[in-house]
Fold this sequence. Notes:
- The structure holds two protein chains of two kinds.
- Chain A is an alpha+beta fold.
- Chain A has 17 helices and 33 strands.
- The longest helix of chain A is centred in the N-terminal third of the chain and has 31 residues, at 213-243.
- By secondary structure, chain B is α+β, with helices and mostly antiparallel strands.
- Chain B is built from 18 helices and 28 strands.
- A seven-stranded antiparallel β-sheet of chain B has the order 2-1-5-4-3-6-7, sandwiched between helices. In chain B, strands 11-10-9-8-28 form a five-stranded mixed β-sheet, with helices on one face.
- The longest helix of chain B has 29 residues, at 219-247.
- The radius of gyration of chain B is 26 Å and the shape is globular.
- Chains A and B meet through helix 4, helix 8 and helix 13 of A and helix 1, helix 6, helix 7, helix 11 and strand 14 of B.
Amino acid sequence: MDDRLLVGVDVGGTFTDCSVVDGEGVITTAKAPTTPDEFSRGVIDALTAMAATRGTTLDQLLARTERLVHGNTVGINALVTRDGADVGLISTVGHGEAILIMNGGGRTAGVPAEDVIDYARARLPEPFVPPGRIVEVQERIDSRGQVVLPLREEDARRAVTELLDQGVQAIAVSLLWSFLNPVHELLVKRIVQELAPEVFVSVSSEVAPRAREYPRTVATVMNAFIGPVMEGYVNRMETTIAGHGLRQGITYSGCAGGVLTRSMVTATPILSLQSGPAMGIVGSAYLGSLMGHRNIISTDMGGTTFDVGLVVDGAPVMREGSIIEQHELHLPMVDLESVGAGGGSIAWVDEVSGSLRVGPQSAGASPGPACYRRGGTQATVTDADVVLGVLNPGGLLGGRMPLDADAARDAVAAVAARTGLGLHEAAAGIRQVVDSRMADLIRRMTLFKGHDPRDFVIYSFGGAGPSHAGLYAQALGVEEVVIPLANAASVWSALGAACADITLHVDRGGELSSPFAAGTVSAALDAIRAEAAAQLGGHGVKPSDQRIETTAFMRLVGQVFELGVPIEVPVTERSLDDLVARFASAYEKRYGEGTAYLGAGVLITRLRATGIGATVKPRPRRVEVVASRPAPASRRPVYWSNDEGLVDTPIFVGEGLVPGAAIDGPAVIELAHTTIAVHPGQRAEVDAFGNVVLRLGSSNERH
Amino acid sequence: MTPETAQPRSEDPAWPHDGRVAGYLPRPGLRFDPDLLHTDAAEAVDPVTFEIIRSHLWTLNLEHGDTIQRASGSPTVIYAGDFNQSIHCEDGDPVVLGPSMLSFTGLADLAIRWTLENRAVSPGIHDGDIFLHNDPWVGAGHQQDSTVYSPVFVDGRIFSWVLNTCHERDIGGVEPGSFVPQARDVFWESTPVPPIKIAQGDKILADVEEMFVRKSRLPQLCTLEIRSQIAGVLSAKRRLGELLDRYGAPVVKAVMYKVIADCERTVRDRLERLPDGQWSHRAYYAGCEPGDRALHEQVLTMTKAGSTLSWDNRGTDEQRGQSNATTGAWRANIVAVVMNHLAYDQYLCAGGVLRVLDFDPVPGLRTSCTWPAAVTGSAGAARTTVAQASHLLSQMLSCDDELARHAWGAEGVHTIVNAVFHGRRDDGRSFAGTPIDMMAGSTGGRTFGDGMSASSWTTAPLSHTADVEVWEQNLGILYLYRRRQRIGGHGRWVGGSSLVSAYVGHHVVEQSMNNNTAANALPTGPGLGGAYPAPGGGVFHAPAAGVRAAIEAGAWIDSPESLRRDVRAGSLTSVLPKVTGLPFGLDDVCEVWYSSAAGVGDPVDRPESSVVDDLATDRITRDVAERIYGVVVDGAGGLRPAETAERRASIRRTRIDDGRSSAPLHRQDPEVAAAPRAHPLGPALEVARAGGGAFYRCARCAWVVAPVSENYKDRALHQDVALPEIDAALFVDPRLQVDDAVVCRLYACPGCGGLFDSEITRPSDPPQWDVRLG
């Protein structure tokens, strides 16, 4: 790619991050504050900052850009603030309330387990479509896809007109069993397009063609809710960027591990929800492929949350649904879990037990930790790290962000006084409690999904991550922690986006019972493969860049869990027997030995073709490794544990470390956007790519 | 009951609650060798270590639940959430339970304690043993609730226990699904299995496992479910073992003890802010077996003294038919409700709650039935117990302005309403089950706002139903509609509404339905502080309804109104309790109204704007708005303020003019009327002290109702109203199901006509003395 640049821009809660990989594999990073009133301004600011970092102009930067991948939070922001389109919903007669009934689970969906019995605090979420804008049409299809009551065109027309008369900006159509037989939904769609081509239309058999009408309807309605917002944003973004000379179209981060073209993100904007963290996992998988790591626990500790995703056998672990704003929805996405534990998490003392707790409340970026001197007075994890000396009391970001160490001390001292602990003991306690919560989340994501964390490498990014990873890794028995590409760790989602392929899914519902007929399966696969290829072509992907993978989603009769199993073409009776065997084996790996009771029968619930359009990938520069023992830039006392107390600790500056450099703990490595804590007994090494690798070795208590 | 199964007696007359004849309750003191138990605990644990271990215990217990869900894959577990798991101290005291079916917690400690008392000598309790039981008299809701548990040993002694319970889809008995509505005694049902070892050395004993699952129509799935439970127990033991390795048994034990003690202290502090007294509630039920039209009574009484709550069931009728609950099930549901109302922020620590509770049931009654009563329908008695306990606690909590936030009207499904379908599909598959739309539930009005519709159960917060498409795929039905009922119980803050669903047979060659419901025309969900009772729901059946012909003609029956309008004339009837074998083919319709939640406060005090909104969204009719809420609107639905004010005044005046009191009205004393309020007593009443006495006083107009030593209801004005007259759309006429007359009685203030309370009663009964302040 010579002098061409791969550019990733990712909008986060506080900062909009930008990363550039050039033809030599050199990575540059830059940031600008996020501008929630108009996200595109922050994007331009970040790109401008990047241009300045590289000593060029915005227009020159964009002129050299081969790909610009953009992750944004436009969709989730609209959902959380309920600031989206006025949506109307067309549903099956008798079932218009499905999205309001929420199967009865809406009161507690997504609520932390410890809070679910507190009825005084309980609430049902605000609906995304008010009851007055739900219209039922006279139609019915049954569980075999057979039409029980045909939809008459005049009924459909009347329903659409009724919504248009209410001034809706978007129409969602979600009818029972439409994923088996979309004929009625497509009729309604055609009428909307005919009567009001400017109105955004979202159809359940296209957005989420899977069984279970409640999560399918939510996906369809949320898609409609954010559709016009996303369309407007993308139009503004592309116009602005084009004005600065970008020659290629922008691609957009998706939540299912791939990137989306403009037409994909505007037609199905829900595919962009949670795309930032998802791209982080994609980035981890890609870096892992270069480093030979096939099993990765990808962790991101920021100001308010700790996000975890897994890479297993080289691929991000996926899931098929999510809960957003207490609503359950069908959405294929990278499996991410989050817990309220970050640098801004507030330490507090439980009045009754006297115990020291941390989070989930967070001081966030504003007022922020006490040491930021932005009005925060409560002790946070960051304050504890300052008191302990893990974070430089003199300031972060190479001194560009001064810290008030006295304020941190005062805040932690207040916690210490209420727990009867000393100042440093309390600060160390805050660290232990938060690290323990993070380790618990990782345990839940690994051990209880059939994985042993000791078979994994932890990748740690996010501003607060590398100063904590050494401890939670230790608690899990993990031996190696990678702080990826050092200075890129804090813009990891932006970089991950630049590693992703264009990805689209074509799902076809229709329950098939074992024994499966090869002819039936084969015909269905052919149809969705052709559809996926056609869609890729429609997005401008050349046949030579196309790859199509097929998956059968299967479950056991009488059981609820569905698992995706790769299915190859051509399909034969024998390969179908093998499919069942592979399903059984995957099922037992995931759900436990003896759980795959095949005697009850096996079902294929749907088939999926994943169309992949290969993109140009960044190739981080690999540098020759020369063993070295760098000299510390300074020393300061750091409180590593209650046993040792304050230890005079060497402090290294990350920018001066070259591949092959090795540092034994205790030590602290200060980078531009983060700080790495190397605990006693641990060792940090810089590898050929510039990653800092923590080796836990003897410090690991599980060994 | 036949003579061959005449009632045996417990071996120890001094303590009848032995778990063999009467339901088990542990008697004070240890009845087994205390050397079995590992009780060493560190004297103090620092606040950091405490927090880390507490959090680990919480997480590992959630993981225990995850493991069961993953390995079982059962819809009953995943959708209905009909399972739970817990960690216990060495003697069975529960430290933490999971957030699923809360009522299992008050059974878990019973199973462990019974096992310690009855299995320590023979066959002995050893490291690596895993026990299994589903005996309602030992501690299970009904035989479907199989319980798997194991001791965790340290240094040869029992350090703790981990336990889980799951509802099995079929465990035998004469009806598929194991609910036997027509059962006369337990011998019609699955045979209960008292605690046995299912594993030794953490290895499954094949003979025991096969014996257990042999009873089931679905032995392979039953095996899978039992194994998922064993996997859950093993995972919890493994993680607890890691915690013990790391911190040492005495430190972990100290944390467990402290978690319980902290919860206990919190609950006691709350109780000590409230006045002492005794609260009781009488509910009426019928339909214990097919053809039972007699009126029976279920009574629950709660006595608060200092920081202790004692519960008894005196006044309840004797066990009968199928919907009896054992003592354990009764106790367990009370424990769950107390957790909801008083320990809502205590990380589900049941141990601290149990310490403030005493139970004193009389064996042999509906809520404390003795062997061999039929019990698979125990949820009937148990759900009414939930409604009663919640009502008593809500009344008590509303004696404190702040704690009143944790008071609410009875939640939905206070009366079990449940139709079960079984048959064969045209693809050859047999099925039996119910679409569990009941689990969508609804929750009561609160003291500060309306209840929530389709919001599950507070005692099973993660439970819900599944999608229409799931049930249509798995059973032989097609839904005509599934909606929220328009409104729950009327009140200032209304109750949430449960679902109403209508089904027609589809893709079946044969199918019939059973009505597991008792006499749901008798509502068992009381309103709080002047709110009306919650509706009891109903099951309707229309054979040869003409639905298919209507569909052919292009007309879909899409609502309860259209069902009543369009179905073949006369075919729709209210199904009597416990009727089995009704035809349910391709043109037969079944419509089920799941019982809704109750509200809080006098409906006439409901904000006018809320009533206008209720009308605009079709939750109530104009007739109800005017009669019940006293709100008058114009043709466009806009409020007519002057007429509304007049209408509301008129309703209150009528309550005074037409009401009668059981005792002479209290002579008004200006000194008492002007005395400062001692504490509130719900939204409508308060207690004032003056001249050395304490008096009930109207919170609205300061009318002095009665001295607190008396039943204030005797000196309030009451009117009896027929239930369908309140709202014919919500209440089934009780005369369809019971022979005795039953009415709703409203108690109003003689001074201002504001409502104090409502109750379901026989017209001939005197006012219930349900509040006695200490």
